[in-house]
Amino acid sequence: MNTVAEPIAGLMPPRYDGSSLLNLAATLATMHGTAPAYPLLSDAALREPLLQSRRLVLWLIDGLGVEPLQQLAPRSALASAIAGELEAIFPSSTAPTLTMLATGRSPAVHAAPEWFLWLEELGAIYRALPLDARDAAGARPPIADAASVYPLPALTAASRRRSFAVLPEAICESTYSRYAYAGATLLGFRDAASFVEAVIGAVDAGGDSSYVFAYVDAFDATAHEFGVASRQALAMVRTLDVVFEQLAAALAARGALLAVTADHGFLDVPPERRFRLDDFGDIAACLERPLTGGPRAPLLHVRPQHRDDFPALVHRAFGDHFVAVPSGEIAAAGWFGPEPLEAQDARLRSRLGSHVLLPRSDAYFIDVLPGERTPTLIGMHGGRARAETRVPLIFAGRAP
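^ that's the sequence the OP posted. Answer follows.
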């Protein structure tokens, strides 16, 4: 298994050889008692605290990468406690990362490579985590069993530790949450106070060998809407910093380790580089269906008769902003995971479409279906820029 992906079109690939979130997932798999499929974290200072902690809380703050944190709050308790940096996977996005941390496997085999997925078996585009159809007018029901579209079991289903998942109340009992945290006790929260209460309660209930996965999405939502450089994003980081200090003190008193990380970072996209499909009729005419994937690395389903000429068409339309690469080439190069093609999930190819638009700049590319609200996205992630891929690993809590 080649743990270093190959460069494509001059763009640097993800690395899976010891310092990525995939290696964090492998380390978590070991902690749960499952044989890891990839190298563990290579830095012993990051790996051993996770493996040696009998009571572990992993708090994932959606979107709070190293650069947003250091830009907004360089003297915060969170920033001061950074023990090391990890690299986000590709795409640097929430759906593939959450599913990877839940299953211990890469997007190449867990089959949730991005937010919007063309599900060939259902003949429609679905959102990867809500598991509902993108085209609301089609009246397709949500998916009732996530295992019908995602092939791998959750690590918590067979964990040797008592496990908990602390999640926003709106998604706590969702179909995806029941799949990704099978075997764990699900605890919902409404605000910062109830989040702290739920995490501490889980640690207290977990006994001498426990794992708590805690997920907060408020920074991600704020940065998308207002931008990562906004006063709203700063206010959110300050709130998270207070929560961090509260948890660190409470968990230290209980001999529990608090590990904090993110699924990706963020960058702000200027208005002139927020591209829409309806402004590019020649590209739209080549597509079999709406865009899938995410705005920074869209997945395109190009009609067979246009596939040979499509990369040149994208180059003429977007200049230095995007390059169109056949999705099979990217999968074979190891960008979605280090597994060889024959070991990747059989459904991945149709879910990736025929081409991926790899971003060369800070641009994004979206479409809007009838009935959808036009998104007002300022902050964005999903590409390979350092602002998107640098994520922290922060330690606190456990008393010496």
